[in-house]
Amino acid sequence: MQYINGEWCQATTGKTYPVYNPATGEVIEQIARGGKEEGNLAIDAAKNALPSWSKKTAKERAFYLKTVSEKLRERIDHLATIITTEMGKPIAEAKGEVNLAADYLEWYAEEGKRIYGDTIPSSSETKRIIVLRQPVGVVAAITPWNFPIAMLARKIAPALAAGCTVVLKPAESTPLTAIEVMKIFHEVGLPKGVLNLVHGEAAPIGEAMMERQEVRKITFTGSTKVGKELAAKAAATMKKISMELGGHAPFIIFEDADLEKAAEGVIASKFRNAGQTCICTNRIYVQRTIAERFSEILVTKMDKLVVGNGLQPEVTIGPLINEAAVAKTEDHISDSVKKGAKVVYGGKKPTGEVYKKGHFYEPTILLHATHEMKIATEETFGPVAPIFEFDTEEEALQFANDTSYGLAAYFYTKDVSRVFRMSEKLEYGIIGINDPVPTTAQAPFGGVKESGVGREGGRYGLEDYLEYKFLSLELEL
Ligand code: ADP
User: Fold this and answer.
1) What digits encode the pLDDT tens for the residues 345-369?
2) Measured in angstroms, how far is the CA atom of residue 58 from the centroid of ligand 1?
3) Are residues 238 and 142 part of one domain?
4) CATH code assigned at 6
5) What residues pair up with 390 in beta bridges, in sequence order?
6) In terms of domains, do 271 and 324 share one?
7) Among 24, 129, 175, 428, who pairs with 199 as Cys (CB 3.0-4.6 Å)?
8) Hey, is 171 helix, strand or coil?
């Protein structure tokens, strides 16, 4: 059900579409197939709600965010089950994601109270300069399927805290989690129109969002291709944009690293969410002197990964989102093997009755990867870990930066000077140093180069939802 102006509604056309469980292929629910008309109605509602919402005090706005955050934590089992059912990730990861979403809401409930302006010394004795910070206006938020709750919280929380109103469009395949979150906002009495949910046909809904002058900000997480299209369209009405797009993360292991920890790190970064995160490791670079030993350690740790339906507590790798994702993974592996890579773990679809109807793929390790392979430049978004080798720090850095993406990079070393040399030269927005899971509510998440613009999280995440207003006052003294 869509949620527009505080009310639950079907599509005006009456059309619906099925949401599937990727582990079983079963239809979970038929839901409204909204389009441009619903997009426009939601924008109208957000526009009408803006004056009163933006006038509220930060403390009043914080109440809603804080209460919703608490309710997310109370209902973690229920929400995690919905996430796993509609997108497949293991239930423990789904619970982690609900907690992260709650963290964003809690953080921005507080941070909204610290939207400070400035007073600036003037060059004239009679002038006073004051800078106000005000909400940008109606925000359109488009979220992806791989983190159905954390991504929407990371956008909704700072937007509402800043005094903006929001129209949210979740991914076609994962609207059910978004609906649950809207129910909670409704339950805590969020004023009507402040937050609206439209789902269904992405392009027409997107068109309404991009065309309407009243939408002053678009915040998007998804593919680089769609992000670029939206950014181009946003130019027509000069909307502010935040784009969190694809990545192609290098994971560099130097010979002085703790290899056990590095192998654990690769597993956490590469196989979390079955390799379907934008900060997932895509290229593992191992210093040649330790390459063989490292691969052996990594392979011994792989047996603890269990593929299956994420609702089973022992499962650590759920299904991929759809068959196209499985096909892309297979294509990257066969292209790599054709060009000289060797599969030393996995490399096929799991067999057995339980896997028949879902989109499963075994976690896979490839040795002897080279930069001629597709896997070296295209985002796989699947559970494949290709291992490349390098000789020197300079070479590792050059390989790591040789991509149009710039979201996350990781490296493992114990050398503190190297930590700074590498961190300062890696062209990425997020650097994990001996840390494979850097995301947290208080830090700025986002990329450089074609991985996007803007940052989400922490005090930085509010910037994108605010405008500066400069007041110049002439006094009579
Ligand atoms: P992915 O490949 O991860 O599905 P997409 O960029 O296609 O990434 O999807 C991310 C989000 O963008 C989803 O909510 C999707 O519905 C939305 N989306 C895709 N195409 C458009 C479009 N033309 N206009 C607006 N939103 C779109």
Assistant:
1) 999 999 999 999 999 999 999 999 9
2) 32
3) yes
4) 3.40.605.10
5) 287
6) yes
7) 175
8) coil
pTM, entire model: 0.98
> What are the tens digits of pLDDT across the range 368-407?
999 999 999 999 999 999 999 999 999 999 999 999 999 9
Do 212 and 294 sit in the same domain of this protein? no
Q: Which domain holds residue 203?
A: 2-245+450-473
> At 441, is the pLDDT very low, low, confident or very high (cuts 50, 70, 90)?
very high
- State how many domains the chain has: 2
- Strand pairing category for 281-287 and 249-253: parallel
Identify whether the C-beta of residue 138 lies closer than 8 Å to the C-beta of residue 164.
yes
The answer on 192 and 324 residing in a single domain is no
What is the set of active-site residues? 244, 278
Contact present, 284 and 341 (Cβ < 8 Å): no
Q: What are phi and psi of 41, to 5 degrees?
A: -60, -40
Q: How far is the CA of 298 from the centre of ligand 1 (A)?
A: 34
Q: 119 and 19 share a domain?
A: yes
Which residues, in sequence order, are bridge partners of residue 169? 142
Query: Would you place residue 178 in the very low, low, confident or very high pLDDT band (cuts 50, 70, 90)?
Result: very high
Q: Note the pLDDT tens digit of each residue in 198-227.
A: 999 999 999 999 999 999 999 999 999 999
- Give 392 Cα–ligand 1 centroid separation in angstroms: 40
User: Which atom in ligand 1 lies closest to the alpha carbon of residue 173?
Assistant: 16
Q: Give the number of the atom of ligand 1 that is nearest the alpha carbon of residue 172.
A: 16
Token digits of residue 314: 């022992």
